[in-house]
Amino acid sequence: MDVRTESTEDLYQGTDRRPSRARGWLGDMWEDKARLRRILIIFGTAVVAIIALFAYLLGGRYVGTDDSYVRAQKLMVSPDVSGLVKTVDVRSGQHVKKGQVLFTLDPHPFEIAVANAHAALEAARQDVLSQEDTYKGLNAQAAAQEAQVHLAQSTYNRYLALAKSGAIAPQTLDQARSTLASAQATLASLKQNSATQLSKLLGNPDLPPELAPSYMQAKAVYDEDMRQLNHTTVRAPFEGDVTEVDSLQPGTLVISALSSFSTTSAVGLVSTTDVWIEADMKETDLTRVKIGNPVEVTIDTYPDKTWNCHVDAISRASATAFSALPSESASSNWVKVVQRIPVRVTCAVSPSDPPLRAGMSALVTIDTGTRRWSRLFSDR
User: pTM for the full model?
Assistant: First the structure.
C-alpha cells in the first residue's frame, strides 16, 4: 500500500513539473524588468515593421493632390468692328445658348458702307459688259477696214500698171500708194486695240462679269462690308453663363483694336458644358499615371459629393515651362524643386449634379491600378 501511494504521488508530481517550469520562466522574466523590456521592444519593433511592410506593399495604388481646380472654357466676347453699342440683350448671370444675341452695335454706318460697295460692284459689272461691247465694236471696225485695205490695194495695183505704160501721172500713183498705206495702218491699229481689249477680258470675248478681276475686287470689298455689318450683332459662340455685363452700356464706343484689353467693350462668357478639372500633380506621382485612369474628384463646395472621372490628358510641359520668368537652373544657389505637371481630368456631369463653377477647389485621387507588391514582379 505504501509503495502504490508513493508511485501515485510521484506520477502526479511528474505531470505538474512542466507547467511549473513555464510558470517559473514567466515569473523570472516578469521579475527581470530589463529583460522583459528588451524582449517587448524587439517583438514590438518586429510587429510594427511587418505591419508597415505590408501597408507599404499594399499601398501605392492611389496618387492625388489638392492643388487642383475646376476649369471651364471662358471668353471675353467682343466684336471685331468698331462702333457705338445700340442694345445689350443679356444680363449678368443669364444662361445663353450658342448663337443667342448678346449685344448689338449701331448698324447705320455699316449699312452705308454696304450700299456704296454694292454700287461699286454693279459699276464693275457694267464695265465688264461695256468692255465686251467695245471689243465687238473694234472687231466690226477691223472687218470694215479690211475691206478698205483690199480696195486700196486693188486701186494701187491698177494705177501701178497704168503708170508703167505712162497712162497716168506719177502723182496719181503716189496718192494711191499713200491711201493703201494709211488703210493698212488703220487696220493694224484697230487690231491692236482689239487685242488689248481682249486681254482685259482674259482672252474670253464672252467673259462672265463675275470672273473679271475688277468685279472680283469690288465683290471682295462688298463682302467685307457685309461681314462687318453682320458682326454688329454679337452672338454667343458657345453655351454658357454671361458675366461682366454691367460695364457694357448702350452708347459705349467700342474700338475693336482695344476691346480685348477692356471689360467695357466685351461681355464675359463661361461655358457650362466644357468643364474639366486641372490637377497640378507632382512629377514623382506621375510614374504610373496614364491617360484613361479612373479618378475620384471631390469639390470643397460639395464635400459629400464624389464625381467619377478619368484622366483626359497629361501636359507635355510643367507649369513653370510657360512662366515669363523661368527658374535659373544654372545659378550657383540653385535648389532642386519637385515640378508640377498639369493633368486634365474630365468628368461625366449629369443634369442632377451640383453645378461646377470655374475656380472651385478640388481634391483629386487617381487610381493607377497597380500596387507596390505587384510592381516587384511586373518590373522584372
Answer: 0.66
